[in-house]
Amino acid sequence: MTDPLQQFITVLLMAVVTYLPRLVPMTLLRGRKLSSGLQNFLKCVPFAVLGALIFPEILYSTTSVSSAAVGLAVALALSLLRLNVVLVVLGSILAVFFSA
Amino acid sequence: MNRRHSFLKGAKLGIPIAIGYIPIGIAFGVLASSTGIQTGIGVALSSILYAGASQFVGVGMMAAGASTLEIVATTLILNFRHFIMSSSLSQRLPATIGKRFLAVLAFGVTDESFAVASVQPQPIFEPWNLFGLNTIAYLAWNAGTLIGLLLGDAIPGALAASMGIALYAMFIGLLVPGLKGNLPMVTVALLAITISSLIYYLPLFSGLASGWRILAATLLAAGAGGKLLEKISLPENNSSREGGHKRD
User: Fold this and answer.
1) Which of A29, A63, A100 is facing B87, going by the closest CB pair?
2) Would the ipTM clear 0.95, i.e. be above it?
């Protein structure tokens, strides 16, 4: 696909199918009292999402698994110390930079 | 709390996202310009689609000559997981927000903005707080994209590669503090990690897009976690459940 107009139309359609799942639940569910089962489920979603986002992709986020493992270890250590998230991020980047 | 104060407080929460988004935005801009698509298409992807992984995939597919239908279907698969994040956020927004403001807030739902928002302690969000968070993330992503599109080759490779860990380090920094002394959520997170890794490594699922993997791991782990929470709270409302039919 090299025609810019067709590319632009494709981007617009991509934007629509991306926006709808972001919009529809927020519009429909807000202010609605959900069953306690569903509420419990939604309470667990942040922790489940974070776990699924981190592993295993973090291991392949840098040029080598070993440097990524160093970054992971440093991020874990710093967050166990309850440092601010910005410091966790910067510490992890530096650890990867110097171990690469 | 006034709007400006609330907005700035949210923007501050979004700083770790910005640190992660700028280098990845740059990487996206560099990739987009290297495939030969026009700068305007790269800008449009970041500004009106605004969804990291699917932008990389979309540009790659365009360059590979995929059809519009294929690209749009893949985008839907990759981004459908936001459905569940938006559902979760909906329970923490005040019922008083206007439709238009809600539509703007929904546009800013990403893995990262959801992660930062959802670990905040307050049960109901201040909407302007969320708006500030979304805005700084959006600006960082688009600034990164522009830098990458316009002067991509000038970024030192070693530094750029080291910054690939940024968003994952942020996820860890958001996850770990909330787990302390919270055994059910430790279980949920470990379960999600296990399921996600199984799907990632088992050859059976090798064709599965990463969006489906994250969605499946989230649904299964949060589903099990929901049941676990129900069991824990069971002793207190045992009597009300007897004889009554089960909900959901």
Assistant:
1) A29
2) no
